[in-house]
Structure formats: structure tokens, C-alpha cells
Amino acid sequence: MIEPDARTRHLLLRLFETAVESAHPRHCLAPHLPEPPAGRLILLAAGKAGASMAAVAAAHYRRLGQHDIAGLAVCRHGYGEPVDGIEVVEAGHPVPDAAGVAATERVLDLARGAGADDLVLVLLSGGGSANWIAPAPGLPLSAKQALTKALLRSGADIGEINTVRKHLSRIKGGRLAVAAAPARLLTLAISDVPHDDPSVIASGPTVPDPTSLADARAVLARRGIEPGPEVAALLADPASESPKPGDPAFDRSEYRIVSRPADMIAAVSEAVRAAGYEPISLGPDLEGEAREVAAAHAEMAKELKAAGRKAALISGGELTVTIRGEGGRGGPNQEYALALALALGGAEGIAAIAGDTDGTDGGAGSASDPAGALVDPTLLVRASARSLDAADCLAANDSTTFFDRTGDLVVPGPTRTNVNDCRIILVG
Questions:
Q1: What distance in Å separates the CA atoms of residue 375 and residue 304, rounded to the nearest whole number?
Q2: Distance (Å, rounded) from C-alpha 259 to C-alpha 24?
Q3: Where in this chain does the record put each MOFRL domain (predicted)?
Q4: Is the dihedral of CA 275, 279, 283, 289 positive or negative?
Q5: Which class for 391: exposed (0-12), middle (13-18), buried (19 or more C-beta within 10 A)?
């Protein structure tokens, strides 16, 4: 039986670990934490790094003697960790659940109770949109869940999804800032979105919303989604419009990004160079259909190989998958890896890893879902020996089954951070 090259496989996994570690709150958060306030510290955290960010912040302020700390951290199921003096709630992602609704109501209550001398410290990371879920008045959770599933299946990108979410919420799109006024508000965020747009990270709960109700309606029309009656009524109601630039709610609000995909690309590039490869960054903000991007990257890799270069193609961003098959399992990183393998056709001297730095890629919402997959020149031969047809699995959007059976899944478990996808192709 043909076996993959263990040394190359180890290097790819080590590079992926470098990407994840560079974005963990224990390395990037503390330098941005402000001095303790004159009044209370109200710590509100959300997303896949919600608990880990809260743990770093709470420990920091305890060391400074700040003991008047209230707050709540909401994270994805399986991503929790103990936080000194702060409750942690695990909630649904990518489809929101009742635990997220109950926790978000308490977050809003904490924000509304803040006074002018208090500091509301908001710690945001990818996944916060699903974890902080406060449906607009008259919108049942079931209707919002159904809409989220429809948007995910349609291939809508994160910007489109959040445009709709922000107009169906009582916390997203700047509404948390409205609740917290007149307190000082500081948001520290780990970016998981292309171009690091604060209005997109966790659906921008503390910043003005540049999108409109008309934009939200246009997303649904463009993606062929017929909204239910409750959604349609809210998106037609001017009262559902989100707060815009110039709203006094933002007068005492500040926003800083503490880690971004570009920082992850830089860390991986340094590690790649140390391993003897020429790093070639394709950018931190890639978007597009996973299988199409993979085909383009395969051509780049083959050109580098033909030129005799020892190099690494490194990219970040967030790719999408349009569901075509029924019953398949997988996410954009696994689909990218499968499409890349097909496009490379077993080309010698080229190996790759594609994974989501949050530790899970698509899947059923379990913390044990795979983050991505590995590709090497032996993959298609090994698959054929197991009666696996890569093209059939790609057509069925069933990349998880393929890589599970070949033994090439990347399963790190919850990483408690998220700067989106990390893709590395080693050439030579």
C-alpha cells in the first residue's frame, strides 16, 4: 500500500498549528486591554474565542486588582473554558439555538445597566453572529433558524448573511452600542472576515451599520430565497433599520482589531521561510467558490513546480460552497482540498493543507468536526484502492467521507480562536 510522506505531512500540520497559535488570545489580546475604569468593568464576549478572550481579560484585570467585574461570555458549543468570575454559556453555531437567545437577553440587560463611569468591554470573534442571537420583535427563533439554513445552503458569503442578520436582530448592526450608552464602550476583536470590516465581524454589534433594509432584501432575491411572512414583514418595516454613522450611541465607542488574517499569513510565511521554502502570499482575504479557487491554485502550483522553485503558496480568507449534492458532509476547506487534489492529478512534489483556524470546517455543528484536510501526490491512488471516486465525492459535496476514509482529515478540535481559513501548498 502506498503511504503519504510522513515528513511533509508533519510539516504541513506544524504550519497549520503556527497559524492557529498566532491568533490565540493569550498572544494577541493583553497588549490592547485598557486601564481599569473608575466605575465597573462589564465584560461581554462572543464567538469561538469568546471564552478564551474573556479568560485572558479577566485574569489581566484580577492581577491589576480590579475585582468589580461583571459579565458574560457566549461561545460555540465545545469552545468553553473556565473564566474567573465570569459565566460562560455555550450556544449554537452556525445555526443559533435557545441557549444563545437566553444568554443574549442577559448580555443586553448587562449593557443597559451600565453607567457613565463604567467600561463595557466587548470581546468579539468569529461565530459571534450566531452566538449573540436576539431576534427582532415578532420573529420566532425557528424562523431565524430556517433563514440561516437557507442562506448557508445558497452559497451566500458572510457579508451577505450578516446584511440580512443585522436587520432581524436587537443586538447586531450597532444595537449593542445603543443599549450600552452612555457608558464608555471598547470593542476588541479577532477578525475572521475578508478585509477586516468591523461591521461584518460578528455582525457589527457595536459599530454603525453601512447596510440597509433594501440591501437585505436584495441578498434574499439574489440568492433565490423566499422569506417567510415574519421575515418579509420586518424587512419591509422602516422601524427595522439599523443605527447609522452619526448616531450619538457611538460617541463614546472605540473599536480595535487585535488579530487578523494578515497576521496569520505573516506568521506562517516566517515559519515557511525557516523550513526552507520561498513564501508566496496569495493574500488574507480570498473569497469565491472553493472548487474554483482550488483549480486556480493548482495551476499556480504546477507552474512553480515546472520552474523548479521550492515555494509555498499561502492564502487566507473565507471560501464558500454551493450545495449541489444531497446528504454530503464537508465544508469549504475540505471541498477546496478535494478539488485541489483532482486538479493536481497526483502531480509529484506538491502537497497541501487547507483548514479553518477555528478547528471546524462545515460539518453538523459538532466541536469534533474536522477543520480541513491534507493533500499529497499519493492521495488519489490511495483513494482508488479504497474504491473511492474523488470526482463523485466532489459532485456530491461529500468531502468529509472521502478524506475520512483516506485518513487525511485534519481534526485539531476546538482551537478557541478564529482568523478564518489557512491554505498552504508546498511545492518542491
A1: 17
A2: 8
A3: 312-421
A4: negative
A5: exposed
The CA–CA distances, whole Å, from 264 to 211, 257, 422 equal: 28, 13, 8
Domain limits, the chain: 6-21+262-427, 25-259
pLDDT in tens, 27-44: 999 999 999 999 999 999
Class of the 25-259 domain?
alpha beta
Residue type, 389: D
Tally the residues of the chain.
Answer: 428
CA distance 318 to 340: 16
**55-74 pLDDT tens trace:** 999 999 999 988 789 999 99
The residue behind cell 433558524 is 145
Write out pLDDT tens, residues 117-157.
Answer: 999 999 999 999 999 999 999 999 999 889 988 998 888 88
CA-to-CA distance for 72 and 321, rounded, in angstroms? Answer: 33
Phi, psi of 165 (to 5 degrees): -55, -40
Please give the Cα distance from 179 to 108 (Å, whole number). Answer: 7
CA 300 to chain centre: 26
- Judged by phi (left if over 0) then psi (alpha if -120 to 50, else beta), residue 103 lies in alpha
Q: How far apart are CA 428 and CA 426, in angstroms?
A: 7
> CA angle at residue 189 from 24 to 65, to 5 degrees?
75
Q: For residue 313, give the H/E element and its range.
A: strand 311-317
CATH of domain 6-21+262-427: 3.40.1480.10
The C-alpha atoms of residue 336 and residue 351 are separated, in whole angstroms, by 13
State how far the Cα of 341 lies from the Cα of 359, in Å rounded to an integer. 21
Residue 301 contacts residue 61 (beta carbons within 8 Å) = no
State which amino acid sits at residue 399: S
At residue 190's C-alpha, the angle toward residues 184 and 191, to 5°, is 110
6-21+262-427 and 25-259 in the same fold:
no
Which residue intervals of 248-331 are DSSP H helices?
Answer: 261-274, 290-306
Containing 374, the helix (H) or strand (E) segment is strand 372-375
C-beta of residue 4 within 8 angstroms of C-beta of residue 376: yes
Write the DSSP assignment of 38-49 as a string of letters.
SS-EEEEEESTT
Cβ proximity of 39 and 115 under 8 Å? yes
Distance from the Cα of residue 341 to its chain's centroid:
24
Amino acid, single-letter form, for residue 275: A
Instruction: Give Cα 116 distance to the centre of its chain.
Output: 33
CB 44 within 8 A of CB 87: no
Of 357, 64, 413, give the one whose Cα is nearest residue 191. Answer: 357
